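Progress report, Aim 2. The chain analyzed during this reporting quarter is listed below.
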Amino acid sequence: MNLMLFIEDNLQAFLSYTGFSNVSLGHIIMIIIGLFFIFLAIFKEFEPKILIPIGFGILVGNIPLGNIGFQTGIFEDGSVLNVLYHGVTQSWYPPLLFLGIGAMIDFSSLISNPKLMLIGAAAQFGIFGAFILSILWGFDLNQAGAIGIIGGVDGISAIFLSSKLDANLLGAVAISAFLYMALVPVIQTPIMRLLTTKKERVIRMKPPRSVSHTEKIMFPIIGFLLTCFLVPSGLPLLGMLFFGNLLKESGVTRRLAETARGTIMDIITILLGFTIGASTQATHFLTWNTLKIFVIGAISFIIATISGILMVKFFNLFLKDEKKINPLIGNAGVSALPHSARLSHKIGLEYDRTNHLRMHAMGPNAAAIIGSAVAAGVLLGFLR
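Predicted structure tokens for the chain:
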């Protein structure tokens, strides 16, 4: 009899610990969202390297735990997931990813045609547009700063800044930024067609001049000194970005550059995406503020794309025909590297199969990476 009571009591306790006993509608909604992210990654091939970790992380983060106290959840001190999540909350992961991006990126197009930097700068209007929209929608200054960086379509800078200004918004800000990076073709394509004429879409740009090895070495050194003297608060991102690029361009540290853009970047991408996804527990994530952030992110992405294209059209008013810039590369002023540059190239080929725009589009795309890191530093410096 005592044995039966013991089994019955422990069975009831066990059942009370299961997810089935603690599940809520919010958990179901978040699990569906996680499955949707995985669907986009696998079947639509939208940013699979980040959407699969985020999507599966959402599933992990929304297993109902109740109050079992086993230190398994991401917000429980001492749990494995909580330790890994420190890389997000303490901003360890973003600089390491910028190291990999620096070791991967080629600044030759930007060096050969420096005015393309202004296209990348123009697209940063999306950041400050999001900042203003956030204030108008009732967020305080720090929250607006954390949300604003979504306008650069740079998930890494978004994580870095939101972890410093308002960690409570970190999950919503990061997932919004990464989702819009994945949706670059969906959002930017109709804007590019709407704002350009058939004549503009077939503009042929002069091939970029050949950039010397010395110029490639000097660019990350000079770029680092100029940007970090101007915005010291952007040091972790800008320092690692330019350091990674120097590893690549020096010609004597190939193994280090390959490790930075390969092994290190892959590991950090997995950990970042997974823990960001796992942090979206229904009770933390499903709020009106999250919905507002996604709406602001979409509007700011549109503003950034429009600003980049209109900046090119403005330039062309003052350039001779042989020096005009194809406005299709204006969309690459956002930080979605290399997806927006690839989109410029793809749409350009639809109107002229021999007009290759990708190398030109990499100029503003590379400038946007620098620009979003600088903007993050500016916002951090003003708001902290």
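The first helix runs from residue 2 to 17. The mean pLDDT is 90. These observations will guide the mutagenesis work planned for the next reporting period.
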